[in-house]
Specification:
The structure holds two protein chains of two kinds. Chain A is an alpha+beta fold. Chain A has eleven helices and twelve strands. Classes of the chains: A alpha+beta, B mainly beta.
Chain lengths: ~350, ~200
């Protein structure tokens, strides 16, 4: 019998626990310093943490279209986000402040018209609601490395493909900078490099993955809020949270692209009534808002989180909560536990 | 179209040498929507006009070593938002090829591509509308100038390409977000005839 070779395509997935994300942007900065410091990348934040509800980055991304019409299977035309809508990347008046002889009268401010000012976290901590029931939560956002990536199908040159780990990667030599991918992406997480005339986005830290090192956003998270692993690995926290407990949910799954970044939805305190007594019936973050992000499964996910917490409060144990707490930091890293400090510059393990 | 034998600064579209060369008026038409290579593009542009640049004026010249193609067309005065104006000179690579679709997989076309703002021209192999593959572009040069509401661009490369016998044109109106296969293409090949 002839031997057959088969390349097994696996799917890496991320799970962000929104109850643990503190919005510190360490993931954003870890990604920024690693990948987007070259020419044309000033405005690029492949990883960014939005305050929700909020306009985020690019400004108003949830209203920019893209994805698939799940009824017809046809792609939905979208808006191509501009550099201004992504925001940031403007210069500051450092020289005036530090060397201008203004004696402290000048203050650092972006050198851009006030109405055009926007950055990846410009509306940080604004949220929604009225005191005493105002609310917000943080939501890290990156390329969703979708199972059915509309960016890939929109591209006329075939510059995008999925690798053996399910990461959506771009061949920049093939990319013509046509930007249909940016329009088609419902998450608006693809950037254009105006200097090099190519699209760019999260690469899933694939060189680290290949060396057994977890992506920077995962490894650097001080809140232990993010897991990575293979969705088909039944022992992986990612598999258990997404497939078994169904407590980690995709964002805007209605876009039909099969995103592989999942979120444990945020619990919230109860609302306060006008007399400042507690309304135990109503969480401060409106459930319908969470449903608009994470779909109808958010209600059972939140109910399960609450019931597991109640179980532990009553002296019981919860494997799910133990997993989410991540007592052992390495559990977050999946199979990618190699310490990058042990690697030689060519990526192999040092002596 | 006669390929004039000239010397001088042919790479400069404003060069006086070009004044002695007759221009050929070329009628352009949009690449068909059905020919666009992805469903996304067909959906996004099904209710939107593109490729409306109706006409261009083209001249050809050679100094013996290089072939120079000078293309002139009326600029759309609407502002360019994300995309820039561009032009291409198209040549057969394999006998002939379908100009209206900018080639196909069986008979790809050679495309000398200039885009306003790009550091240099691209040498592309076109397998269809927007289905472009980058090749070594070191032998190509291009200069574009916008004056009095008209673009003038000279693309040049090795004179040997003239042996292909014909040239086509493609124009992209950046003000209308045109790129990839969303172009106006000359309706017919223009024969390249030695002077």
């Amino acid at each position: 019998m002839a031997a057959t070779t088969e390349t097994r395509v696996r799917q890496l997935a991320w799970v962000y626990d929104l109850n643990k994300c503190i919005g510190c942007q360490t993931c954003s900065v870890a990604c920024k310093v690693l990948w987007t410091r070259d020419e044309g990348e000033k405005h690029q934040w492949w990883m960014s943490v939005n305050t929700m509800p909020g306009l985020g980055t690019p400004k108003g991304w949830e209203e920019m279209g893209g994805g698939f019409d799940t009824a017809t299977g046809k792609p939905i035309p979208g808006h191509q986000p501009t550099r201004e809508e992504f925001g940031g990347g403007f210069d500051f008046n450092y020289h005036e402040v530090f060397y201008g002889g203004t004696g402290g009268k000048a203050h650092l401010e972006p050198q851009a018209p006030r109405e055009n000012r926007w950055a990846m976290n410009w509306d940080e901590d604004q949220g929604a609601g009225e005191w005493p029931n105002s609310y917000y939560f943080y939501m890290p956002r990156m390329c969703n490395h979708c199972t059915n990536p509309v960016c890939m199908t929109a591209c006329p040159t075939g510059a995008l493909s999925k690798d053996e780990n399910g990461l959506v990667l771009r061949d920049e030599e093939v990319c013509m900078g046509d930007r249909f991918c940016m329009e088609a992406c419902p998450y608006k997480k693809i950037y254009f490099n105006y200097e090099r005339h190519v699209g760019q986005q999260c690469i899933g830290c694939f060189p680290r993955i290949e060396a057994g090192v977890a992506p920077a956003c995962v490894r650097q998270c001080p809140g232990r809020a993010v897991f990575i692993g293979y969705l088909d690995d039944e022992n992986s926290p990612v598999h258990r949270l997404v497939k078994e407990w169904k407590v980690a949910l995709p964002l805007h799954a209605e876009a039909g692209t099969g995103p592989n970044v999942f979120y444990v939805p945020p619990l919230s305190p109860y609302r306060l009534k006008e007399d400042m007594s507690i309304d135990y019936e109503t969480p401060r973050i409106p459930p319908e808002y969470l449903e608009s992000l994470f779909g109808p499964g958010v209600h059972s996910a939140l109910a399960l989180l609450k019931s597991e917490m109640e179980k532990v409060r009553n002296g019981g144990s919860s494997e799910m909560l133990t997993t989410l707490i991540a007592y052992k930091w390495q559990e977050l890293l999946g199979p990618f536990t190699v310490d990058p400090a042990t690697l030689t510059p060519n990526g192999s393990k040092g002596a | 179209m006669k390929v004039a034998k000239l010397a001088g600064k042919l790479a400069d579209p404003a060069s006086a040498e070009w004044g002695s060369v007759d221009a050929v008026r070329v009628s352009l038409a949009p690449v068909a929507l059905e020919a666009q290579p992805t469903e996304y593009i067909r959906e996004a542009w099904k209710d939107r006009d593109y490729g409306q640049t109706a006409e261009a004026a083209v001249k050809a010249a050679t100094d013996g070593e290089r072939l120079y193609i000078r293309v002139e067309w009326a600029d759309d005065p609407a502002p360019n938002r994300e995309f820039q104006d561009a032009v291409g000179a198209v040549f057969p690579t394999n006998g002939s090829g379908v100009l209206a679709t900018l080639g196909d997989d069986d008979k790809p076309l050679a495309l000398w591509f200039w885009e306003n703002g790009r550091p240099g021209p691209l040498n592309l192999r076109s397998h269809g509308p927007g289905v472009f593959r980058k090749e070594d572009s070191s032998a190509l040069a291009a200069t574009g100038a916008l004056a009095d509401g008209r673009w003038s661009v000279v693309l040049s490369g090795p004179a040997s390409i003239a042996a292909k016998g014909k040239v086509g044109l493609a124009v992209w109106n950046g003000s209308n977000d045109e790129r990839a296969g969303l172009a106006a293409v000359s309706r017919e090949w223009l024969p390249l005839e030695s002077e």
